[in-house]
Amino acid sequence: MKLNKKGLSAIEILLPFVLTSVLIVSMFNIVFSFRARQNTESTLTEVTTYMNTITRMIQTDILIHGIQSVNIERPPMPDLYQERVNVLITLGNGQSRRIEITKIENSDNLPIGRDEQF
């Protein structure tokens, strides 16, 4: 019995399409995974840079002006998910710096702070 070898069967047509689709989907998953990791690392770098900037500013003020007093304020009712501390530093020249530190438990224990000058 002689077979007709001029055309392609349905399996021969579908197999490359299915294999290509599987490869494309797996590549998208890899790309999305790397994008999520990049966003996390970028945020961590930004927080670390901000923290280093604040630390440098505080060190400079302390070295130049000295410290007259430090008051640490904690809220009377602590939050279950956050720990908040306010630190008021009075420098030798009379200027004050208030630093608010908020530690959020579900954020990889990275402290989030804000520096205010007044």
Q: Would you give an account of this structure?
A:
With 118 residues, the protein is α+β, with helices and mostly antiparallel strands. It has one domain (10-117). Helix content is 47%, strand content 28%. A four-stranded antiparallel β-sheet has the order 1-2-3-4, with helices on one face. β2 and β3 form a beta hairpin. The protein is rod-shaped, with a radius of gyration of 30 Å.
Short account of what is shown:
The protein is an alpha+beta fold.
Keywords:
1 helix, four-stranded antiparallel beta sheet, alpha+beta, single chain, 118 residues, 4 strands
Helices and strands, in order, run as: HEEEE
Please give the radius of gyration in angstroms.
30 Å
Given as residue ranges, the uncertain stretches (5+ residues, pLDDT < 50) are: 109-118
Binned, the helix content reads: 40-55%
- Give the helix tally: 1
- State which percent range the strand residues make up: 25-35%
Q: On the 0-100 scale, what is the average pLDDT?
A: 81
- The tally of strands reads 4
Q: How would a crystallographer describe the biggest sheet? A: 4 strands, antiparallel
Based on CA inertia axes, which overall geometry fits?
Answer: rod-shaped
Oligomer: single chain
- Domains (count): 1
Q: How far apart are the termini? A: 97 Å
Main sheet: strand order? 1-2-3-4
